């Protein structure tokens, strides 16, 4: 049984204003690194051919961030910000997180106008269908905490760390 998604949440405007001042390129590098690790090898060849040279943008509306990238035939690569990418996918941070955790259906978000695709709609549908067809693990933020990553990469070091206080998820 799945838990219902939480009510819609938007980052406060002052948080978005601060995030909007961050340089775009480093964020795009981080995003494409994650996409390459998680998705690139799973994409079908016909989808890769369709993505060849296309300019893509993920826009996090409430954070006022945009991550621009393209497929170069081998992997996704960051690019300079694009005024008119071939495909832009926009949503609030919470909605992208719900999608990654598979707690919300992209069609539901789309029809509720919380997920917006602009540009080449055929490309957008191909990308959406390709992602829907992939059997990917659900994104669990706890899997990516520094302590969890250290436990996977260097368990001997992780065992030397003191326990976390209960407020941070440790045991009382």
UniProtKB/TrEMBL annotation:
Q: Which residues form a coiled coil?
A: none
Keywords attached to this entry: Ubiquinone biosynthesis
Does the keyword rRNA-binding feature in the UniProt annotation? no
Gene3D superfamilies (alphabetical): SCP2 sterol-binding domain
Q: For the SCP2 domain, which residue ranges apply?
A: 51-132
User: Which InterPro entries did the record assign?
Assistant: SCP2_sterol-bd_dom, SCP2_sterol-bd_dom_sf, UbiT
- The reply on keyword RNA-binding is no
**Biochemical pathway:** Cofactor biosynthesis; ubiquinone biosynthesis
Would you kindly state one Gene Ontology biological process term found in this protein's UniProt entry? ubiquinone biosynthetic process
Q: Which family does it belong to?
A: Belongs to the UbiT family.
Sum up the protein's function in the record's words. Required for O(2)-independent ubiquinone (coenzyme Q) biosynthesis. Likely functions as an accessory factor.
Supply the name of the protein: Ubiquinone biosynthesis accessory factor UbiT
Species this chain originates from? Paenacidovorax caeni
């Amino acid at each position: 049984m799945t838990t219902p998604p939480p009510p819609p949440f938007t980052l406060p405007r002052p948080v978005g204003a601060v995030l909007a001042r961050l340089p775009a390129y480093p964020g795009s590098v981080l995003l494409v690194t994650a996409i390459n690790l998680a998705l690139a090898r799973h994409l079908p060849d016909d989808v890769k051919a369709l993505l060849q040279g296309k300019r893509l943008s993920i826009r996090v509306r409430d954070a006022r961030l945009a991550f621009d990238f393209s497929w170069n035939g081998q992997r996704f690569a960051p690019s300079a910000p694009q005024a008119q990418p071939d495909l832009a996918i926009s949503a609030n941070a919470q909605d992208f997180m719900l999608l990654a955790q598979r707690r919300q259906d992209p069609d539901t978000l789309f029809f509720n106008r919380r997920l917006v695709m602009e540009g080449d709609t055929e490309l957008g549908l191909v990308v959406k269908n390709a992602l829907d067809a992939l059997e990917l693990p659900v994104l669990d933020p706890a899997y990516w905490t520094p302590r969890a990553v250290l436990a996977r990469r260097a368990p001997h070091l992780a065992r030397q760390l003191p326990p976390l206080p209960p407020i941070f998820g440790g045991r009382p």
